[in-house]
Design brief:
This is Bleomycin resistance protein. Pfam families: Glyoxalase (PF00903). One of its GO terms (biological process) is response to antibiotic. Keywords: Antibiotic resistance. InterPro entries: Bleomycin-R, Glyas_Bleomycin-R_OHBP_Dase, Glyas_Fos-R_dOase_dom, VOC_core. There is one protein chain. The chain has about 120 residues and is an alpha/beta fold. It has one domain: 2,3-Dihydroxybiphenyl 1,2-Dioxygenase, domain 1, CATH 3.10.180. It has two helices and eight strands; from the N terminus they run E-H-E-E-E-E-H-E-E-E. The strands form two sheets. The chain has a four-stranded mixed β-sheet with strand order 1-4-3-2, covered by helices on one side. The chain has a four-stranded mixed β-sheet with strand order 5-8-7-6, with helices on one face. The protein starts with 9 loop residues before the first strand and ends with a strand. The model has no long low-confidence stretch (mean pLDDT about 95).
Length: about 120
Amino acid sequence: MKILQRSHPVLASLDIAKTVGFYEEKLGFHSIWMDENYGIVERDEIAIHFWKCADKLFPENTSCYVEVTDIDVLYQEMLAVKVVHPNGPLKKQAWGMREFAILDLDGNLIKFGEKIQ
C-alpha cells in the first residue's frame, strides 16, 4: 500500500504575482491561488506553492526536483522559452536519471528528471 501520494514544494518568492506569471508564461503551469503573500501553480500532477519573502538569499538557495516522463519533450519546450540553466543541460546521471535544470526569476533551482529505462 502506498501511503505517500504526492509532494508539493513550497518555494520562496520575492514577488508572488511575477513568480506566478513566470510559471504560467514560461513553464506551462496555471495559477490555482494567488494573493500578495502566497501563490499556487499546477501543471499535470505537480503543484508548486510560493511564499512571499523579502530576502533573495532564500530563493537563491532553494531547489526542488520534479520527476517527469518524456523528458526530451519537456527539455525542448524549456529550451524554446530559454529557461534552461547554463550549467544544467540535459544529461545522463550516474544515479540512473536523465535530468536538466532551470532557474526561475527569483533564483529557485528546479531540476527535472526521468528514470533511465
